[in-house]
Amino acid sequence: MSTKNKKVMVVGGGIAGLTAAWELSRFNIDVELIEKTPFLGGYAIQYCCKATDECRQCGACTVEAMLKNVVDEPKIKVHLSTEVEKINNSGRISVDLKKSSYRPDSATEGVIRGYSKNNSPLHVIVDKEKCEENPDAVPEGAVELDTMGFSGKLDVDAVILASGFQPFDAEQKGTYGYKKFPNVVTGMDLERIIRENATVVRPSDGKTAQKIAFIQCVGSRDESLGNLWCSQVCCPYALRMAERIKHKNADAEISVFYMDIQNVGKDYAGFYEKCKTDFRFVRNIPVDVFPMENDSLSMRYMNEEDGLCINEEFDLLVLSVGITPGPDNSDLSGIFDVGLNEDGFFAGMDKLNSTSTLKGGIFLAGTVAGPKDIAASMAHAGQAASEVIKHLGVS
Amino acid sequence: MTDMKHTDMEEINIATDVLVLGGGLTGIKAASEIAGSGYKVILVEKDAELGSQKGPESLVGLKEELEALQDLESKITADSNVEILTQASLVSAAGVTGDFTVRLSKGKEVIEHKVGAIVVATDFATAALHENYGLSPADNVLAQSQMAELLASEAGKGKLANKTVAFLVGLAQDGNPLVMERVLKSVLALQEIDGCVAYIYAGDLKVASDGLERMYMESREKGAVYFKLTEKPEIVENGKTISFFDSVARRNIEISPDVIVVEEELRADDLNEEIAEILRINVGPSGFLQSDNAHFFPVRSNREGIFVAGSTREISGLPSAWTDVENIAVEVKDLLGDGKKSVAKNKAVVNEDKCVICLTCYRCCPHGAIYWGDKKAIISPVACQGCGICASECPMDAIQIGGFNDEEITEKVKSGVVSGNGTPRLLAFCCQNSAFEAGEMADMFNMQLPEGLRMIKVPCAGKIDLDYILNAFVSGADGILVMACYPGNCKSENGNTFAQWRVNDAYRMMEEVGLEKDRLCFVGTASNMGSGFSSIVVDMEKRINELGLSPLK
Lengths: 395, 553
Known about the structure:
Chain A is of the alpha/beta class. In chain A, 24% of the residues lie in helices and 25% in strands. In chain A, the strands form 6 sheets. A 5-stranded parallel beta sheet of chain A has the order 3-2-1-10-21, covered by helices on one side. A 5-stranded parallel beta sheet of chain A has the order 12-19-13-14-15. A 3-stranded antiparallel beta sheet of chain A has the order 4-5-9, with helices on one face. Chain B is of the alpha/beta class. Chain B has 4 domains: 9-124 and 268-340, FAD/NAD(P)-binding domain; 126-266, 3-Layer(bba) Sandwich (FAD/NAD(P)-binding domain); 346-401, 2-Layer Sandwich (Alpha-Beta Plaits); 406-547, Rossmann fold. In chain B, helix 1 packs across helix 2. The relative contact order of chain B is 0.10. Classes of the chains: A alpha/beta, B alpha/beta. At the A-B interface, helix 2, helix 4, helix 6 and helix 8 of A face helix 2, helix 6, helix 8, helix 12 and helix 15 of B.
């Protein structure tokens, strides 16, 4: 196989970027993997396992495995805290890189931690002053964010854009009180809560949440926002997490407010039947949430059967936020001269080949091209790798 | 694949021809891609015709794609690297990846071929659900496919002018986005015809696929009326009227459509079961040919070198079938290379002196990697995944797994229970794919872990021999954890089940010698749940503290 000196840049170190990089490395192709944050794994590495007494095929564990593949693979060179500045596309694609301007939300003690044991570095110092105040809280081997990042020029033969998505900002739906009321969390928050504690607690008091409501389609299928797409992941993650909660705490009362339930996994029919016996499904999207004295939440919604309004109290409210276009899409679209579709995701060449673009040498992988779950992102990245291999004439 | 490090390698020659089963659109694409990588392809189709003749109805609204497919079809027909066998079927398949011998029947002829890899690319089948709605097929009661067929021709469209059409979808079964997409495409196509009005009676709208929400909105803007129901509407006189009670408007809504279109269930191909049996691959939910196991997604089966594409493995529209095919193209290229493969000599070694060819290993290998010769069982180094289930099941202890041989593990057990400062000695046998990763994560993130805990890495929980458990107790372990992947998450399909059985055997023996059952625990874990690992082992230490140290010490 003649793959000598072929080099591909993958922009984005989430599950799609990791998968694309690893697939290419299997063919002896050198990969430059660019990630703007200080850690690999993107959002998917932050998700929890949703097994009850059996696996629910959420795929979160496969992200761990892929991250390990990548960090163990010498053909893949990782540049953390780095982003693309510009490209020069004559012959080979010459990419100017710069240190990323990305700054994580401030962390307690000034240090943020990776999500996987395979993250390297595992701890990053984002606030030096805070760390100097309390040097004992700084783990050994922590790296200063300011020292990270690569600036310079790299010449590559192809680029895969895998810069991912942005979870919908739930604060935009102001009436739900996200970030105002402590016990209103997003699906992303709940993933992290379970990942870190292996159990579900109320943020306000650390007590086990008994009465929990999930609201589906927050930021998806929403005409008022102009978000005319189904995010494809929220019904699966919400129902899987709800099943997990119910499995650990049989007394938990869970309600799911929805428009249309989307299929979850291959054995959907059986799973949904179980969900219907375990939870209450209400075909209505609530509008208003009010705080109560005990930090519980009062939620108003319409009863489908009689059309009357009901106020109901919940301990914890989970907003099933969807997938929205990545924050850098318009910048990257300009830099790489690849168009976005009407929803703001990157546009593939056609419906059957959504990994190639109209621009030769530039390919797409994962949620950069539209909503996908973990398995679909990995499959899409495999497809992108295949198209790149064909493009490079590797046989 | 395995991340074990092997140093003693040898190079073997493997067959590089590829068998593709199914000459539908997915199979054609697979043949084209694989032949494009330089491999010879044998494409087998049971019917007389290939591809685009077989299912144009799924392509309503995809005119350009249909043309591209017809190009593809003529391309592979002209490609000397693709041998097309129509009206043919698979009779048998022997051997392992890199060295399959397949027999194909065409008419009275049986053709034998050596192939290195096999791709299964069957299509989905459709079944109209008239009966579920109390309807019978009639001129005014059409199945979804019949409607799509009408819409595919100008004459058909002419017949639909000025008609009121009612669609029934998602009320007889839950359906999926492809069922929905077929309905939405038909609705949008009807809206191009003069005087057509569409009513859609629907359960959950399955819009979890690219572009469907927009298609739904577009059809609504153009005047389609959607009734979202939780129960089937009342239908009288085979579709003369449809009515339901609208709870918000508090009144009955009745319509008399000219045409009723009944949804179709999309099912696994009838051939799947037979193919699975011949190829010894596992059947997943609803007759599709892939276990519901995240480690196999997208295109792997339980056997190395046998790949599943598109609707073979789950209901797929063309875009996702294409994605599968590209993934298979990469896998095939990686697997077959240039026909020379470097393999580890010690992946799984059968001791000829001990082996009595009882075929226990052949039967328990979840990867179909074992066959036999005159003197002993033979484990293919290409097909073997190194899980070690065979080694632990072998009644003669004739099999050793590279990197995890019994002596080494026994040694680790012994050194793991060397007594410390009086804290309980806990041994955790950890599958390297889940618990071991989780344990290391818990350690790295400074989560709480018992002082006396030692982890012993195994390639799969299926490698945990009953002897390991018993020896560990004899050596002085106060508590033992057998930590496997959750059911449905084992890379070797049922290694965790084997481990569970062995733990049950151990319970029986513990009972006989009067050792408390609570000293042994079988538990599922996930590689990304350091916190879960920590809480499991901390709970275990608590239980052992309540029991006191082992009486066997």
